[in-house]
Design brief:
Elements (H helix, E strand, L loop, with lengths): L1 H11 L3 H17 L1
């Protein structure tokens, strides 16, 4: 049960790398405007 909960949390909480990628993409989109 605990393992399943952890796996579900992994999909909900983005990793630091995912956050960094999303932030860079966001900044690039702002530059385009």
């Amino acid at each position: 049960l605990e393992r399943e909960y952890d796996r579900r949390n992994d999909t909900v909480i983005p990793s630091a790398d995912d956050l960094g990628d999303a932030f860079e993409r966001f900044l690039r989109e702002q530059d385009d405007q």
